[in-house]
Prior knowledge:
The complex is a heterodimer.
Chain A: H1 2-21, H2 47-51, H3 58-62, H4 88-128, H5 134-161, E1 179-184, E2 187-193, H6 206-229, H7 236-259, H8 267-271, H9 283-301, H10 322-339, H11 355-381, H12 386-401, H13 409-433, H14 442-460, E3 470-471, E4 474-475, H15 486-518, H16 524-529, H17 532-536
Antiparallel strand pairs in A: 1-2, 3-4
Helix pairs in contact in A: 4-5, 4-6, 4-10, 5-6, 5-7, 6-7, 6-9, 7-9, 7-15, 9-14, 9-15, 10-12, 11-12, 11-13, 12-13, 12-14, 13-14, 14-15
Chain B: H1 2-22, H2 26-53
Amino acid sequence: MKQVTLALALICCLEVVGAAQGPAPASTAPSPTQTAAPTVAAATITDADIKGLSGPKAEAKANGDPAGTTTGTVGDIPVGDAKKGLTIGDVVNQVGQNQIAINFVWTLIAGFLVMFMQAGFAAVETGLCRAKNANHTMMMNFMVYGVGMLAYWLIGFAIQEGGVGAVANLGGTAPLNAEHTMHLFGKDLGLWGTKGIMLTGTTYDVGVMVMFLFQMVFMDTALTIVTGTAAERWKYLAFLVSSFVMGAFTYPLFANWAWGGGWLQTLGANFGIGHGYADFAGSGVVHAVGGVTALAMGILIGPRIGKYTRDGKANAIPGHDITMVLLGCFILAFGWFGFNPGSTLGASANGNLRISSIAVNTMLAGMAGSFTAMIYMWTRYGKPDASMTGNGLLAGLVAITAPSGFVNPVASVIIGLIAGVLVCVSVEFVDRVLRIDDPVGAISVHGANGLWGVIAVGLFADGTSNYGGSWNGVTGSVTGLFYGDASQLLAQLLGVATLVGFVFTLSFVLNLVIDLAIGQRVAPEHELEGLDIPEMGALAYPDFVLNEA
Amino acid sequence: MVWAGIAITFVGFIAAVGSLGVTSNNSVRMVIVLAGIVASLVGIMGVLNPAYMKHAIWKK
């Protein structure tokens, strides 16, 4: 009887601890036909009360546990002091560790999914290029993973996250506490972090490791976008240098401003502009950074030979494997379930159960984008174009990336529908008006729709999300123009201005320096032959006789 | 003209950031930021890109 009373008292104690972690469940009054549950008198519990609790005996466990009812019991809670036995402190510590463990596992698995998106990008880009360049294009997408990771480990992560401060979902990440600031307009504006170089010293920390892995795979997504625009004429050595520079400096700098405690993130706290620049999973930080860098490279490197006639008319240069393209799009759509929902950095407490909404928003926007792109191409050119339909899916996914944590499903569909049309119009504009050759449409998919996603937050954020009661240091939920806060749109537009005005400029100048130093573009005769032999030394398809295209 | 395009693009960004110090009225800031974005786009599409297109490979 005493054990039953002690167990009930312990359950009451655990419920009090659970309430401190998050909101208590709503109580329901019993109906007139039900008998009210007996009230258990609150009791003060001491360590002595729980010391005697034990799990199933060894003999019972040796019989096996097919129903799972005796696996995971009080006997599995680590005891801090064997002499004292099980204490209240042990139990409460385990609750805390469980919460952080759930968040670690969630974030790491989401990061693994995003890493797999590299395969998706590789397939899409290689399929949209000609067969004579397949080895080269695939190798760019393969090694961008390693080059980007090296640059990020050496210095990029420190620049981006060195001063981010406490990330509660990951147990605090307290070592990331050094942000270089500039005093301007009466405020301290964060510019870049300085802790975390090569993950040494105090940043050799389990929470920091989770953060590094997750942020690294996002960085690599931005880097790989550029390889699509510059494909079929980019020198492999120049690609390596350019990608290293982007992973070490360009991407981390903007990412610090948006996510790492920098000035864009603190626009709300410092200047009263909404909740600061809000970019849930990176329409701006990842996709628009990649897209504007791709734009810079597209201008700098010039179009492929044969892309335009002497009077500037664009010629279509079809890819060699549309099946690879669409398979790659599916791989990307799958990986996006890590990209967006994983950006909560947790699945427990602080509003993180919204991962379900984020995942559904992601699906819906991608679906909507593919539909409008397909219908646009069908009505305009008479056939449902497969590559543009795939790009429509990607455009929807890119566009929903920033708003995914802040909007409802209807808004997600609207955002995706617009993205599908925008990508088609943008491809035509870039190709025919700007005369910038973009073999895979990366400027339109990631640049144009990345910017659209950033703006969409300022329009459609509905104020129902609650990630711990505040966002970017401003109390309350992110709310857009259509739900009553025009200042959020201003914060987003400042992000757009930074992407278009600063990130583009920085990317262009850095790549111009690389061009002057080692040259970005291959020799014309190598380009005509195909880059596989001159640059890589081997054909992707040695058994096939390739067209002279 | 290449450097002029780069400069115009960057000035658009400076104008947008400058709006934070020039006024505390968010509506005025919005106008300045939009003007900055337009300036940057003009710098990229209207000055820098045409400067590169003058010597485009398809014109040779």
